TrEMBL record:
Its cofactor is Zn(2+). Its main location: nucleus. This is Methylated-DNA--protein-cysteine methyltransferase. It comes from the Eukaryota. It is found in: Nucleus. One of its GO terms (molecular function) is DNA binding. CDD domains: ATase (cd06445). GO terms for biological process: DNA repair; methylation. Its EC number is 2.1.1.63. GO terms for cellular component: nucleoplasm. Belongs to the MGMT family. Residues 20-91 form the Methylguanine DNA methyltransferase ribonuclease-like domain.
Length: 190
């Protein structure tokens, strides 16, 4: 049921919907790992990026596979108690893009590993970090194809001009996430 390698049967996918401060986030995955995180497409975001108390699973199976449990726990912490995300296990990912060896995968892992909460990098800086300083455009492509936004924080990649640039969840969501992180980071410091 879990083997989705070449020719194997597809894994048993399950879906969870997390009601977050920015709307419904849909998460899909199986026993092996998280497949995808779908952000709400929103034109209007809730005012204020203060951490919200509510971030609850509103639909999902009773028995959630471990990667989905870890993913929802991590996202809940991200919105409600960001300081704790560093201590939580990251869920396993089970998406072809994150399993094939490619520049996209390298960029996404680099971003996950090196760009911390409340920080931002430009496309070019991330290309440098991933080992190819001339690949800023390819970095943009990698961000567009990121199957697990927020956990792999493609919202932290901005244009060199300081402009936030594009985002799968829309520009307001990107700006909301960046200001949420900034506010939370200042709270932790004070």
């Amino acid at each position: 049921q879990v083997n989705s390698k070449q020719g194997g049967s597809p894994c048993k996918e399950q879906h969870v919907v997390l009601l977050s401060p920015v709307g419904k986030i849909e998460i899909s995955g199986c026993e092996t790992g998280v497949h995808e995180i779908k952000l709400p497409k929103m034109s209007v975001l809730p005012s204020g990026a203060e951490s919200s108390v509510s971030c609850e699973v509103c639909e999902g199976p009773e028995e959630m596979p471990q990667p989905l449990q870890q993913c929802t726990a991590w996202l809940r912490a991200y919105f409600c108690e960001p300081a704790t995300t560093g201590t939580l296990p990251l869920p396993a990912f089970h998406h072809p893009l994150l399993q094939r060896d490619s520049f996209t995968r390298q960029v996404l892992w680099t971003l996950l590993r090196d760009v911390k909460f409340g920080e931002a990098v430009s496309y070019k800086q991330l290309a440098d970090l991933a080992g190819n300083s001339r690949a800023a455009r390819a970095v943009g492509g990698a961000m567009r194809n990121n199957p697990v936004p927020i956990i792999i924080p493609c919202h932290r990649v901005i244009r060199s001009s300081g402009d936030s640039g594009n985002y799968g969840g829309g520009q307001q969501l990107k700006e909301w996430l960046l200001s949420h992180e900034k506010l939370q980071k200042e709270k932790v410091k004070s």
